[in-house]
Design brief:
single chain, mainly alpha, two-stranded antiparallel sheet, 5 helices, 6 strands
């Protein structure tokens, strides 16, 4: 006769699944499918923590470097905005280049340490670094300047995040 197992999180649910790491019984709603089998949420969380290596000061340094470099890039976008129609092409080519420079600058300062919260903090630094230039554009009522800044941020922010986090859109 086999023993009836109950989920360790939901004691009233019968199950036949076990976590392949800690061997505790888990129900289907608690099971997380991994390439090596089903695991409980606690084991998955513990495994993810091993990849989070950032220190508290990485948040501060990463934010400051991202904001400073983004402010410089936003200023350059303002200069490009005065060129006219050709400026659209320069923004389309320059924003990804600026994003790579920002990501590599931050990566050098944080010594390649990583965590999801760090990447979000750095993305916020990119946006807030461009804010003074955007506010100047709003005060001077420069519509195209604001538009160019928005295009810069729409292109640069996700590139910085994906470059730091290692997300690969194409393999």
């Amino acid at each position: 006769m086999t023993e009836t197992l109950y989920c360790y999180v939901h004691p009233n649910r019968e199950t036949s699944l076990r976590c392949n790491n800690c061997n505790r019984p888990i129900c289907a709603s608690c099971a997380v499918r991994t390439p090596t089998g089903y695991r409980c949420r606690e084991c998955v969380r513990e495994r993810q923590k091993t990849f989070e290596t950032s220190e508290w000061y990485d948040y501060v340094l990463g934010f400051i470097v991202a904001a400073l470099l983004s402010g410089i890039a936003a200023f350059l976008v303002t200069l490009i905005g005065g060129i006219g129609f050709f400026g659209w092409f320069l923004i389309a080519a320059g924003a990804p280049t600026a994003a790579v420079a920002i990501a590599e600058g931050v990566r050098a300062v944080t010594k390649r340490r990583r965590s999801r919260q760090l990447f979000i903090t750095i993305a916020a630094g990119v946006v807030l670094g461009a804010l003074p230039v955007i506010l100047f554009q709003v005060i001077t009522q420069n519509f195209f300047g604001i538009l160019f800044q928005v295009i810069y941020l729409i292109i640069a922010t996700p590139i910085v995040y994906t470059r730091l986090s290692g997300i690969q859109l194409f393999r």
